[in-house]
Amino acid sequence: MPNLPQKVYKFEVDQPFTLFKSGEYFASAGWRHKDITNHGDYELFIMITGKVYIKIGAQQFELGPHDCLLIPPFIRHIGYQGSPDHTNYYWLHFFPNGSVTSSFTKEKHGTNSVLIPQKMHIRHFDRVTILARQVLDSANNQTTLPVTANYFVTSLTIELANQFSAEKTNQSIVGSTKFEFIKNWIKIHSHESLTVNTIADHFDISPTYLTLLFRTHENQTTIAYINQIKIEQAEQLLLTTDLSIKQIADQLSFQNEKYFFRVFKKVTQTTPSKFRNSYSRTYLNNINVDPDNPQLLDHLKDED
Fold this sequence. Notes:
Layout: E1 8-12, E2 18-27, E3 42-49, E4 52-56, E5 59-63, E6 67-71, E7 77-81, E8 87-95, E9 100-103, E10 113-117, E11 119-121, H1 125-139, H2 148-173, H3 178-188, H4 196-202, H5 207-217, H6 222-240, H7 245-251, H8 257-268, H9 272-278, E12 284-285, H10 294-303
Parallel strand pairs: 2-12
Antiparallel strand pairs: 1-9, 1-10, 2-8, 3-6, 3-8, 4-5, 4-7, 6-11
């Protein structure tokens, strides 16, 4: 099948979106997305682990870890292939409170609009994870104001739009420069014990030049960047696994649990335990549990 041009949706955000429903889904081997059509609500499908295969209209999408798919309303979508075991994703349905347009052009967003591609790979997944957990937590917390989840799902969409915009800018400015390779290499090897010298030796450059690159392009030291990447992964593990803090520190090759604690607090301004407990109220669903669509119910009442 030839590659189709990327479809981009433009949302007006003068008013926050209205969250309809949200949750975190755990799929077992062979699971396929049900045959469904959304009635007015858009869905953000955010992959955590595994693979999901969804067909929207005539177009097929294969989703892997940290991919995001935007599913528009009034178009049939269905799983066309079984997922592997341990597939896990966030799902969030919302109603826009402004106009929505779509195109295959590279139009610019306005001051009160955001652009979301139909499919994108989330580069800074930790930011999206935190916002997704805030949506789920506020939606299932009886003590928060009802509009809280609306603002969080809008913020999540804006974060996706910012990352999409930054990705296009980075591609046009730096492309596949050596520095981009260095950053990607650090992300891939972030579970290892990394030092400035080991990274510089691997890329055959001096430690001084490596630090200069990071100060110039990232406005921080090499060590600060390494710690930032490690803590981003730690945040994800804290929110999506039951690993102990010591196990996470070991998995990311920190010297010891105490040092991990100190670095985590320096980067996030909070402790690992407080971070993990911040967004604990989430909605976990299965194939038999799904909220009704309020707009569809109103439509059916009108027909009666």
